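Need tokens for this chain, all 711 residues.
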Amino acid sequence: MASVVEREASLQGPKDEFIIWSQVDYVDEAHVVKMAIFMKAMDMVSRVKQRTFLSHNIVNIPKDSMFPQNMKLQDEHCNAFIEHILRRRKLHPYLVKAILTTLLKILRAEPNMNDIRVPPHSRCTVVGDTHGQLSDVVYILKKQGPPSSVNLYVWNGDFVDRGPFGVEVFLIVACLKICKPNYVYLNRGNHESAKYNIAYGFFEEVRSKFEGEAGVFDLFQSCFNQLPLACRLNKDVLIVHGGLSRNPLTKIGHIRRINRNMEVPNEPYTEEEQIMQDLLWSDPCLEKGVYRNPRGVGCLFGPDMTSKFLKTNQLKTIVRSHECIEDGYMICHNDTVYTVFSASNYCGDAGNCGAFLVFSGGDGKELVWNARPLEIHTYMAPLVRVALIAEEKQKEEGKVGRGDLSEQLSILKKKLIDYVIRFHEPLEYQFTHADIESTGMVSVETWGDIMESVLHCKLPWDKIRRILIPNSQNTDQTVDYWTFLNTYSVHFEDQHGFIGNIIDRIKERVLVGCENVMSGFAKFDEDGDGSISPAEFYHVLHVHCPDLHVSKEQVDQIIRAIDKDGDGFVQFNEFSSAFAGGVGSKISTIVDNVSSSELIPVEEVASHWESRLKKQLLRMFYRQKSCLVHAFRALDESDSGLLSIKDFCRAIKALLDVERSVKIHDDTVSQLAKDMASYRDDATINYREFLSKFQVLIEEKKEGELVVRKT
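Here are the structure tokens for all 711 residues:
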């Protein structure tokens, strides 16, 4: 089932870049939802509670600050603050904390749903997602003017993540709220949640801007958890970030009773949590009924659901955001649901317009209040100077690119590369099964079908192929999938041999207690049929080597590398070539029993399975970097970036307890911690440095030479 945005994209034929961004956005959010669930499972395993900012005290402000010490802001203070940001001046932590603690006090006093009156001779501007795009916020405020009794604002969530100025965007709207609390209203979006902020970049943005300043990120989260869930204009128009509840009997009263002071629920346990999740995550669709949302949370609600909800709650219109729209806005469900998205040229590549809605209270005479927007303003916001400078810096670092995606490593291309690495195992499985003759090649059409099937993403894969596969041409009929998969790998700057220790442990234990390779093979060949199945290999390792700690996925990696003929079983010659090196002089036993023509070079097979296992381990750590950040910072109470050996091991073990694809012995984890601690005199571990060691490498041939570069 497709959302309205997906359906419109297929009907109207927008630019390729916008189609790609729309689809990638859905896949990305579905992935991050799973990651957030994973983080929660790690919390349960490690029994660590995530921190929250509990102080009710207003931060002391120096007399020479741009803000008054009592934080009673006026228009001139807000204007000065915006100008301060636009001039690229430093945001002092005391000022940020003063803004957020003042805002927190205001938000705590507000209900889940604000009732807003738009009187005659006034208007209300509704702003959609801004996602850290400062230029859009500045444009809207210049266009619409400062908030007042006749110029109201509703900011409909998703202030942060993806864009580089989430801190500044949220602080600006916070100042406007503090200045005019009765004329500025803030709704919560699905991105106002700690786990998503860790995965999508806001956590790193806060850390980089306030290095060494404890509690700033937690204070942002406390404000996010207190943001109202919805508001209602003149009792006719409901404004909510995502959409409607899957329950057709949901009433306004249900929304009012939710305990909103929590992270956005990923796995709702109560009806209240389910309603809250749906309000922040759901999307409209064209078909009647309620359907599973491809994002992985929330629902898709049809026009019949909208009609029932409006009738039940005596409403006329729903305004929501949450989806990137090419024109900046969309109207559906018989002109009763309006979607507004205010981040123009989303992430610098999407090419979409931004938009905002204007509701008029009428003029008291001929023009009366209408539950539909009087004006829908679309725009492409010009980049403010500070944003231009930030973009130029990102271009220099290879993080963003405008123009031809095949020429520059854009945010979009990096995201697609990330998918290739994360889904490496299922992609490899599908490619090899489609390649019946084991040529290492599949047709261009098959390659695209497999990419779409595994990534659950409908994209113009022929264009993507030319972006992702080096030296790919329009006239190509086939794809070398091994070259494609091996182009993108994860590198770990490992001076102490952490990954090597894991592999060496497996090599040593496979033939432990065996006189020679022949007896070792017989040990694994439990049914005596002359071959070893993956199930036999896994079972014997667990029976005879219970301290080895190897997962089924790791065994699968070993089997795939050893199984040279691709029949799914390990024959004696394949086994001996892989593990003969583990028994030293006993290699002669193999030569006596197998003809040399049947043997595969030992170095080739051994290095192959070791390499495969190493790459799988690295991909796991890379894939779960955000989850490790979450676990590390939960134990780092001072936000110093440092952990004791005990806490570092505790976080790694929590990851391994939840991540079933890899198992690592506790001794190996402890040795890693000791090695990492050896870098510092105080025997602590800089976990940020550890995480930075995992980097993506891109291998491609240029003029016949292999070129390797880091992203």
